[in-house]
Amino acid sequence: MKLLEIKNIYKSFSDKKVLTGINLDIESGEISSIFGYSGEGKSTLLKIICGIIKQDNGDIMLNGKSINSLEPYERHAVLVMDEPLLFPHMNVFENIAFGSKLSSNKKRHINNNRNILKSTKEIMELLGITGLEKRYPDEISMGQAQRVSLARALIVNPEIILMDEPFSNLDIISKTKVRKLIKDINNELKISMLLVTHDIEDVLNLSNKMFILNNGKIQDSGKPKDVLKKPSSMDAAFLLGTENIFEGIISEIDKKNNLIKIKLLNGKQGNSYIETDFQGDFEINEQVFFVIRPEEIIILRDDRQTSKPVKENHFSGRIISAVFTSRMMEILISSENDSMFKVLIPFHAYEVMNLFEGKTVNISLKKSAIHIIKKKKPIRL
Fold this sequence. Notes:
Elements: E1 2-13, E2 16-27, E3 31-35, H1 42-50, E4 57-62, E5 65-66, E6 77-80, H2 92-101, H3 113-126, H4 142-154, E7 160-164, H5 172-189, E8 192-197, H6 200-206, E9 209-214, E10 217-222, H7 224-229, H8 234-239, E11 245-254, E12 259-264, E13 273-277, E14 287-291, E15 297-299, E16 314-324, E17 328-335, E18 340-346, H9 347-352, E19 360-365, E20 371-374
Parallel strand pairs: 3-8, 3-9, 6-7, 7-8
Antiparallel strand pairs: 1-2, 1-4, 4-5, 9-10, 11-12, 11-14, 12-13, 14-20, 15-19, 16-17, 16-19, 17-18
Pfam family, one: ABC_tran
InterPro entries: AAA+_ATPase, ABC_SmlMolc_Importer, ABC_transporter-like_ATP-bd, ABC_transpr_FbpC, Mo/tungstate-bd_C_term_dom, P-loop_NTPase
GO molecular function: ABC-type ferric iron transporter activity; ATP binding; ATP hydrolysis activity
């Protein structure tokens, strides 16, 4: 069920166009994310939704009704900023309870001190901040302050919570905890949430659906893993930090056998081919890009017989760098035709396979993991 509908929203500041025809839907009870670079209008869109900024054109619909003419306090959409913005003269308990006193929804309004006390304590327990009631904002950590800010939003029982870069000021440990907390709250309360972020990890860890905002427009949308693996355009691919981007020309299309064959243009030899599952509306001799995620490339083991999926699209190459990240080994392989492949594997696998810089290895690109992206202008052989 659609809770929030954004229809053809435009917004400019002076001569600068910030949002140009934004359309998106938020489902009830789900977490959605707007992903994009800083300065692309993500925060502006949130402020339009909650009524802080007025759009130039377009409609905001909540539960099927326009909220364009409503004041911010009438919209039942609460904005949680990257900075907690707590009242310095109020303690934690008072900061949280303050929100309930401003609620405009009389059916939901907590109208006596006894109920306020009960609700505030319940929310503090839910967010794991009991024991902080009498502390002031300058006496708690940034992670705790963000939880207090979220508690203040929850106490008014909004239809949707809007979060503007909620993890940008948190250290990695606090960020992980608050992400889990938000997911738990969503699962328990079934409250809709919309967050904006430039960190793809936020999207992957939290969201049911993502939207890519770039140059004032929504350029891609869908389930995060689908968008990450199969971006609809090169703009979206670059924005997502897609690696393993190659150029090629469609040399064969076989719908009967679910196959597309592409001549690889990367590298010096230019005579290598890859095969992928049939997809999209492509033509013979059409120039395309194709991408594959680093974790989808398989380094073959010499001591084991390969199964069918890893017999596809073989390349031989040399490991030119291997970097240990927080969770995986990031390996760069230069193939025989000078194409470069980035591969991610667990550190344990790196050790078991006795991999090292300078070693020659064989890799396989799974057909099902290769995604083709159209170019604007086809070329002919």
